[in-house]
Amino acid sequence: MSKVIITIARQYGSGGKTVGKMLAKELDIPYYDREIIAMAAEESGVNPTLFQDEFKHHGLRALLSGGYKGSRILSPESAGFTSDDNLFNYQAKIIRSLAEEGSCIIIGRCADHILKDMDGVVRVFVHAPEDFCLREAMKVNSLPENEVKKLIAKTDDYRARYYKYYTGQEWKNALNYDLSLDSSRLGFDGTVEAIKAYIEVRKRFDEKMKDE
Q1: Rounded to whole angstroms, how far apart are CA atoms 10 and 117?
Q2: Record's superkingdom (predicted)?
């Protein structure tokens, strides 16, 4: 692989974002998360707050309407220019552009599906048991434990429905990813090392296939 694009989907509290940042630092490649919203907003001229995000819930009504229908970006004069679907398409365009530019790490936003046919993509799903996710989430939330439990369940449920709507696939299905890693068994450092080891094996395999 001349370049590597690592997409990381993650359960809330599993440390997927932490792993992504650590990996980006070790590999010395760019890391993109909410920066994608800023880039899409700048390109489209739409206020960033209007973009469909994993924590916005007004779009759930759309998830019950039959699902995502296409990827064509509408023009500013179109009635649906600021619709969730059109704004998702802007994000998808940015994600593809970033991947074409070079090696990088992209967090969430269905990037694994958007880039599934691109060479050099490594699709990762980071997960962990409920007690681990709760413990990690409690470190960054000042809410009572029962409220954090609700937040974890609500966030993961939304991510699953968001993914289903825009990809037609199940978010937790291991077949959608190259690696599905339990961060509670490996730790964050170990999860980073596992991803790096996979990349090295992939590179050797790709070279072998080229020589045959």
Answers
A1: 21
A2: Bacteria
Place of tokens 């045959």: 212
Tokens describing residue 112 = 């694994």
pLDDT tens digits for range 52-81: 555 554 444 444 544 555 567 765 666 566
Q: Does domain 5-201 have CATH number 3.40.50.300?
A: yes
- DSSP 8-class letter at 73: P
Domain boundaries, the chain: 5-201
Cα–Cα distance between 178 and 181 in angstroms, integer?
10
Q: What is the mean pLDDT of residues 4-28?
A: 97
d(CA 128, CA 12): 9
The pTM for the full model equals 0.88
Question: How many Å apart are CA 71 and CA 13, to the nearest integer?
Answer: 31
Which residues have a Cβ under 8 Å from the Cβ of 202 and sit 6 or more positions away? 1, 122
CB count within 10 Å of CB 72 equals 8
Q: Rounded to the nearest 5°, which phi and psi values hold at 183?
A: -70, -20
